[in-house]
Amino acid sequence: MILIFDIGGTKMRLAVSKNSKTILRSKIVGTPESFKDGITLFKETAKELSKGEKIDKCVGCIAGLLDKKGEKIINSPNKKEWSGKPLKNSLEKAIGVPVKILNDTVAAGLGEAVFGKGKRFNIVAYLTVSTGVGGARIAYKNIGKGLIGFEPGHQIIAPEGLFCGCRGKGHLEAYISGTAFQNRYGRDAENIKDPKIWNEAAQNLAVGLNNVIVFWTPDVIILGGSMMLGKSHISIPLVKDYLKKMETIFPKIPPIIKASLGDETGLYGALAYLKANRLSEKTRADLHS
Ligand SMILES: [Zn+2]
């Protein structure tokens, strides 16, 4: 039995699968503030979901920047107490099998590339525009070896522009994220109806996507996150119109489509990772030594 997980800032999703393709059972629990409580809850939930069956493999993802070995989160954006803690080691001790941890945005991109709208394409650029802006390049259903993540949200679109949450200047995230809308207009994005604001966001996203296209040469761009999928959102047709005017290098812009896997995209990313990679047996041996 395979255990997959997605540890987010507010919720943890755990699920089990038997065939690496479909989810058999899943459960959502609140993410504890304390790392120790988090590991205990993870263990209990895994036990409940596996119903006494042996867990053979475990892959999942977490929000935040992972260290190069994928063993701990260097910087957890929502759960400060989890930063720097030995996540991989603690999860392995809790469930007794090797655990592979991915960055949640990379996992979401992988999920879309393998199980979602990216299925038919070789090179998938996935961008999520939500509280922040993140993304991943998935080539041939795989992520780069040793890769810790991408940061397309922190590309500069205006050198003397607005300050970003990371203290950089003129980053894409400072213009089109939910946080940016809150800072600039004093309201949640879903309560903003002014077409001028959304029009400007579409233009700024197009600048970001132009850079994504020239650097990543994607066959398709998949856009997820509340700023793309929410009730009030950035219009994809408008983004395409701006991009068509900007893009002069490639004969045509790739298809730009909405993400389709919703909240389970991280879990599907974990399954997709398993499909493409064999988990290290060495880790398993180490665990029992
Ligand atoms: Zn930034």
Features:
binds zinc ion; Nucleotidyltransferase, domain 5; 20% strand; alpha/beta; 11 strands; disordered C terminus; 2 domains; 289 residues; four-stranded mixed sheet
Description:
By secondary structure, the chain is an alpha/beta fold. It folds into 2 domains: about 1-105 and about 275-289, ATPase, nucleotide binding domain (Nucleotidyltransferase, domain 5, 2-Layer Sandwich), CATH 3.30.420; about 115-260, ATPase, nucleotide binding domain (Nucleotidyltransferase, domain 5). About 35% of the residues lie in helices and about 20% in strands. It contains 10 helices and 11 strands. A 5-stranded mixed beta sheet has the order 3-2-1-4-7, with helices on both faces. A hairpin with a 3-residue loop joins strand 8 and strand 9 (about 135-140). It is globular. The chain binds zinc ion (ZN).
Estimate the strand proportion. Answer: 15-25%
Number of helices: 10
As for the CATH topology of the largest domain, it is Nucleotidyltransferase, domain 5
Question: Gyration radius, to the nearest Å?
Answer: 19 Å
Tell me, rounded to a whole number, the average pLDDT: 92
Name every ligand kind in the structure: zinc ion
By CATH, the architecture of the largest domain is named 2-Layer Sandwich
Series of secondary-structure elements, N-terminal to C-terminal: EEEHEEEHEHEEHHHEHHEHH
* Sequence of strands across the biggest β-sheet: 3-2-1-4-7
Number of self-contained structural domains: 2
- Return the structural class: alpha/beta
What proportion of the residues is helical, as a percent range? 25-40%
- The N- to C-terminal Cα distance equals 23 Å
- Would you count the extended β strands for me? 11
CATH top-level class of the largest domain: Alpha Beta
| Unreliable runs | 280-289
The coarse silhouette is globular
- Largest sheet data: 5 strands, mixed
Instruction: Give me the CATH superfamily of the largest domain.
Output: ATPase, nucleotide binding domain
